């Protein structure tokens, strides 16, 4: 659900895009004495992805700042199971920390995914003040209620865009009868159904073949995914819709967290929040780089009429339907951040 890229080429691309600002993961030696606290941290990103690299750097800072009292052990690339399995593990205490996608959190507590509502944010300029401000605080509080402690600064997982084979997508009318592969998320499927498209949820690994054989007309994903899976080879157009954004929240098992003295809690949380800020910068640079690469490869980018898409969703009842899935407090928090939706 959250995994963007699984190809080795990403590691080379991100290093080039950032001018070498992040180094390859270092191999750290164990502290001279056994750690008092070991935090098993699991996530779904590949080892070459900024999520993992920045987490490893944070782990070293934490070890040094605590004099080896805290050891952050990192398990990337779904080593400890699928995302639902890792979420179950952090809730049970089998692992202590997990990078939780908002779309997955929504399956347990709806308000945790309210930021995934269609066309809520036009750009990162609109997004980060809300996610790092009152809306993000509300989302974290909603997860606290079900026993998931989250840190203040989430990682970036990118905005989603629409690619098409034959015609560019400018308005909702262009999606009428359009066969599109979507992520297997109820809210994303609902978006495109309300826009008049015909949705299917073939696996990400089968999407290239589905596009190539014209089983579907297009797909929707963040730009790095479009690049990594080479969808540009079988698609001609890319509408920069930014229709959904999602991120990863650093979440910890509350019972374990309470065992850490306050000074160690501060060291861990502040360093993981710093890792998230660095990861956001890395991904922003890479998004710029990959957009240029896709354009050079022949994928034609266009800016659609976002207002028309919002209006179509209002008229088709999308916002009214999903408003019932969220609390009034959550809906109010979202509209205070982005303006009136329904």
Automatic annotation (TrEMBL):
GO biological process entries: transmembrane transport
Transport found in the keyword field: yes
Major localization listed first in the record, in broad terms: other
Keywords assigned: Receptor, Signal, Transport
Cellular-component GO terms for this entry: outer membrane-bounded periplasmic space
Keyword Iron-sulfur: no
PANTHER family for this protein: PTHR33376, SIALIC ACID-BINDING PERIPLASMIC PROTEIN SIAP
Family per similarity comment: Belongs to the bacterial solute-binding protein 7 family.
Annotated protein name in UniProt: Tripartite ATP-independent transporter DctP family solute receptor
